[in-house]
Structures are given as C-alpha cells and as structure tokens.
C-alpha cells in the first residue's frame, strides 16, 4: 500500500481485514493513505456511473440483459480482425451459394469463452463445459450458447448448411469437397495462471489434443474456398495460411459471438478491428523460440526478460523481422487512402512539446467502413525502440467520402509519448535530437509514411 497499490486482486494476502487492521493499528499504514486509496477507487466508480443505477434494479431484467448483449455483439463486430481475404472471398453472397460446410470447434452449439477472469457464466446457461478438472489450470472451459451454425444458416436461408465436428479430418474433408464454401472454426482456450505449450492450434482441452492445423490443411486441400474463423486469445502461427482463402480472427467472441461472426462473414458488418499484438511468421522470430526452464503449463519457472523495452512490435522492428501480421493490422471490405499528410509541431515550452498530424482519409471502395489511422514516433534517444505508437483515430466513411483528420500528441499525456524513462533521475526527460513521425494503418513500415520530423534541444 505504501508503494502505491490501491487494490489487491484476486487474493487478499495483505488487504484482508485482519492484516489491514493490524497494519493501521501499528502505524505501518496511515489513515491518510487509506483515504487516498478510497478516494481514487470511488472517483473511478463515479466517473463510469456505477452509482447511477437506481436501487432495486433487477439484474436479470430481460431488457437489461438484451441491452448488455447488444453491447457484447457490437464489441465483437468492432473487434474481430480480418487477416486474409484472397480474391474477395468475403463477404459471402448467399444468392451465389447452394451449399456451405461448417466444420469444427462446436460451432453447432456455441462459441468459446476465455478462461479465468475473462470468463462468466452466461445468463442463458452454458452450452458446453469440458475439460475441467483434467485441463491444466483452475478455470472451467465454457462454450457460450451462440452457435455460429444457426446464424450462418439464418444469413443464407436458401442455402444448404451442413456441419461436421472436425475430429475426423477425413470426414471433414469429404463434407468440404461437396460444398461451395467451407467455414472452419479453430480454437485455442487459454487462461491466466497457465502457459500455452505451442502457438499452433493444438488444443489443451482434451486429454488427446486435436490437431486442428492438420485438419484445416486437409479440408483446404479438398476445397480451395476455405474460410477459417479463429477463436483464441493471442498470437498464433498459422501453418495453413497459404492454403485458405480467408481468415477471420474472432478472439473469444462472447455471448452474441455467433450472430456477430455471421454478420461479418456475410457483409452485414464491415470488419474494422486491428491487431493489438504481432503474429510472428514463425516462433524462430521470437526472443525465445523455446523457454528455458519451462516444464509444464501450470508449473513455475523463472525467465529473465533480457529484451528490455523491445516488446511486441518493437522487437520485430529492432530485429528487422517481417511478421506474418504486424501490430495494428486489419483488413476491410473496402479500401482507404491517406493523402495530404502534414506535421504541425508546437513547442509551447521546452518541457512540453506537442504535435499534430493532419491528413485526408478517403474511402476509395464500394462499401461503408472504418479505418484506424495510427501515428508512430521515433525518438532520438539511444537505446529506445525504433518507433512507438503515440496516437490513433478510428474514422467511419461512406464510399467515396473524404474526411480531414487531426491526431494530436501531447507530452502532458500520462503516457509521456515524447519522453524516455531515465533510471538515474527517476524522471521522464526529453532527449535532444530529431524526432520522426509516421502515419498509416499498421505498425509495419510498408503501411506507414513519414509525416515529418522535428528537433528538440539542438
């Protein structure tokens, strides 16, 4: 508490009533520090309206549940990331399809929920619970009752939609060969308190894991019009990427995941999500292709993170590794163009610089959609990563529409976007030298252009 912790979660080793009362009584913790903690906690609760809900509201009121699930569906529709769409395979046009094969990952009954703190029991009940307690970790594996199969059929009412569970690749390939289009669902359950042994889709749920990657490859060989929908919580190595026509990263889709996935696949929703992580082309690109000391999914071991600041896309930039999919990447059913990019720098004081990137963003395609414009900054300080994300803006445009956009980056921001951390002074100084500003729609250099440069302290 004296070091700044306001809450202890999920355990209460130090903040349990007995320990806390004893610490206050002994003078280890001051009453003013307690007041400070409570003030911050309550301030956040008031800021988001926790106390605005009238007393006596029934949390199981169908209207409230429906409103919450609407939000869940919107989050999934906005957060899913289209990773590949060869030859415009998506969106699907039901009028052009006589048959669709849906394969794998219990798509006939629901979608996968993330484990641990991300997991809740759906109001409608659990579609399937499996693995526990045989699965490593402490969390049950829950499937939410939102079956993609049902909603794919609803989106294509005149099309024959069939299902195979994917556990027998030969059976799945046989079904795939007879269909106009195949939609394969693959999944990787995960939770805090455990590690994944691999970045491939070899699940940890079953005593004998299902090799989903091999199944995808076999199905894709039987039908080149194979679409893969991924339900997972992190980066994966996609061994079958070149064999399939489209890939949708759905993450853990939530209680309306089936509806949201169908809406994206059939173009009712234009995907606009961007990757918050980097997908490596292979594990050999990672700081540790294998983890020294790793002995099991839930066993303790020690790792020294010697890469320091070079985390995520910063590691790939520094090592000049081309990832499979870079941080910030995500396709759309339409296209966008950046033009008239300019940099305006304001040095309001020597210690508080800020800058604005201005540009015109145009929807050059035939469908309404949203683009996420991203601003990156390269600092002059030695030892800093090549560039860092310092600002972004999501812009919704109709076909042909152009909008002038300004993204402002201010040193007063709590993230100190223009500074580096000095361990000697325990402060965030500004390094003298030239700063380079980039703008684009992902962290990868081909997707970025230089907006301009400015100099501080020289």
Can you describe this structure?
The protein has three domains: 1-52, no CATH class; 65-265, Glycoside hydrolase family 3 C-terminal domain (Rossmann fold, 3-Layer(aba) Sandwich); 336-456, Immunoglobulins (Immunoglobulin-like, Sandwich), CATH 2.60.40. It is 19% helix and 24% strand. It is built from eight helices and 16 strands. The strands form four sheets. A six-stranded mixed beta sheet has the order 1-9-8-7-2-6, sandwiched between helices. It has a four-stranded antiparallel beta sheet with strand order 13-12-15-16, with no helix packed on it. Strand 15 (433-440) and strand 16 form a beta hairpin. The longest helix has 18 residues, at 62-79.
What share of the residues does DSSP label as strand, in percent?
15-25%
Q: Can you give the helix content as a percent range? A: 10-25%
Order of helices and strands: HHHEEEEEHEHEHEEHHEEEEEEE
Structural class category: alpha/beta
Count helical runs: 8
What's the total count of β strands?
Answer: 16
Rg on CA atoms, Å: 25 Å
Count of discrete structural domains: 3
CATH topology of the largest domain: Rossmann fold
* C-alpha end-to-end distance: 42 Å
Gross morphology is: globular
Secondary structure topology:
Elements lengths: L16 H9 L5 H17 L14 H18 L1 E5 L13 E5 L7 E2 L15 E3 L10 E4 L3 H8 L4 E5 L4 H9 L3 E8 L23 H11 L3 E7 L13 E4 L7 H9 L47 H7 L16 E12 L5 E11 L5 E10 L9 E10 L4 E9 L22 E8 L7 E9 L2
Parallel strand pairs: 2-6, 2-7, 7-8, 8-9
Antiparallel strand pairs: 1-9, 3-5, 4-5, 10-11, 11-14, 12-13, 12-15, 15-16
């Amino acid at each position: 508490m004296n070091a700044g912790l306001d809450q202890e979660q999920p355990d209460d080793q130090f903040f349990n009533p007995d320990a806390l009362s004893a610490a206050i009584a002994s003078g280890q913790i001051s009453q003013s520090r307690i007041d400070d903690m409570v003030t911050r906690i309550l301030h956040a609760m008031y800021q988001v309206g926790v106390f605005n809900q009238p007393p006596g509201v029934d949390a199981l009121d169908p209207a409230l549940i429906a409103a919450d699930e609407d939000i869940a569906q919107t989050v999934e529709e906005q957060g899913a990331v289209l990773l590949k769409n060869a030859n415009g395979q998506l969106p699907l046009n039901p009028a052009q399809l006589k048959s669709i094969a849906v394969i794998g990952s219990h798509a006939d009954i629901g979608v996968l929920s993330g484990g641990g703190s991300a997991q809740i029991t759906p109001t409608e009940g659990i579609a399937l619970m499996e693995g526990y307690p045989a699965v490593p970790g402490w969390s049950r594996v829950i499937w939410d009752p939102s079956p993609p199969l049902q909603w794919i059929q609803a989106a294509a009412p005149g099309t024959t939609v069939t299902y195979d569970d994917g556990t027998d690749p030969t059976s799945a390939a046989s079904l795939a060969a007879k269909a106009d289009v195949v939609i394969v669902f693959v999944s990787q359950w995960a939770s805090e308190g455990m590690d994944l042994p691999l970045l491939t889709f070899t699940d940890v749920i079953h005593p004998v894991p299902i090799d989903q990657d091999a199944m995808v490859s076999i199905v894709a060989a039987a039908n080149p019009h194979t679409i893969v929908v991924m339900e997972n919580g992190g980066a994966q190595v996609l061994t079958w990427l070149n064999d399939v026509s489209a890939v949708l990263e759905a993450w853990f889709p939530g209680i309306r995941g089936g509806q949201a996935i169908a809406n994206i696949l059939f173009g009712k929703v234009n995907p606009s999500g961007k990757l918050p992580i980097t997908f490596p082309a292979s594990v050999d690109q990672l700081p540790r292709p294998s983890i020294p000391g790793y002995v099991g999914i839930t066993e303790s071991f020690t790792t020294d993170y010697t890469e320091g600041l070079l985390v995520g896309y910063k590691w790939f930039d520094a090592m000049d590794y081309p990832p499979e999919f870079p941080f910030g990447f995500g396709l759309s059913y339409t296209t966008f163009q950046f033009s008239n990019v300019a940099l305006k720098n304001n040095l309001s004081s020597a210690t508080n610089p800020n800058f604005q990137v201005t540009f015109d963003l145009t929807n050059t395609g035939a469908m309404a959609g949203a683009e996420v414009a991203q601003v990156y900054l390269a600092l002059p300080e030695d030892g800093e990563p090549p560039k860092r994300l310092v600002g972004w803006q999501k812009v919704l445009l109709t076909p042909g529409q152009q909008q002038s956009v300004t993204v402002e980056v201010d040193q007063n921001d709590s993230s100190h976007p223009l500074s580096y951390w000095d361990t000697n002074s325990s402060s965030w100084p500004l390094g003298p030298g030239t700063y380079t500003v980039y703008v684009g729609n992902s962290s990868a250099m081909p997707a970025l252009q230089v907006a301009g440069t400015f100099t501080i302290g020289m």
